[in-house]
């Protein structure tokens, strides 16, 4: 099981985490919400717990709770710019469907 970053995403995350005092890495998660059932969560991991799995990709530590690892296995996280907007894009092979607005997904 693995979660990875593209080079572009890793550069963005390294820059972001450099400004954080207590960053153990980037936490990637999933929460129940939206019309399709689940949404991604990306936040600073201030610590690593016993229930967490840690991956290293492009020199960045990615922290994922083992309970949601099945939703994220094989996911590659990219960072894209479209016009004036920039955001993470999840290339998740487990997704079966997404909602019309693209904010939530089903596995």
Q: Can you walk through the features of this model?
A:
By secondary structure, the chain is mainly beta. The chain has a single domain (4-106), classed as HesB-like domain (Hypothetical Protein Aq_1857, Chain: A, Sandwich). 15% of the residues lie in helices and 47% in strands. The chain has 2 helices and 9 strands. The strands form 3 sheets. It has a 4-stranded mixed beta sheet with strand order 3-2-5-4. A 3-stranded mixed beta sheet has the order 1-6-7. A two-stranded antiparallel sheet has the order 8-9. The chain is globular. The two termini are 16 Å apart.
What does the secondary structure layout of this molecule look like, with pairings?
Blueprint: E1 4-5, H1 7-18, E2 25-33, E3 37-45, E4 52-57, E5 60-65, H2 69-72, E6 76-82, E7 85-91, E8 97-98, E9 105-106
Parallel strand pairs: 1-6, 2-5
Antiparallel strand pairs: 2-3, 4-5, 6-7, 8-9
Q: Concise description?
A:
The chain has 107 residues and is mainly beta.
Descriptive tags:
mainly beta, Hypothetical Protein Aq_1857, Chain: A, 3-stranded mixed β-sheet, 107 residues
Instruction: Tell me the distance between the termini.
Output: 16 Å
Number of helices: 2
Q: Which ranges are low-confidence, i.e. pLDDT below 50, for 5 or more consecutive residues?
A: none
Radius of gyration: 14 Å
The tally of strands reads: 9
Helical proportion, percent range: 10-25%
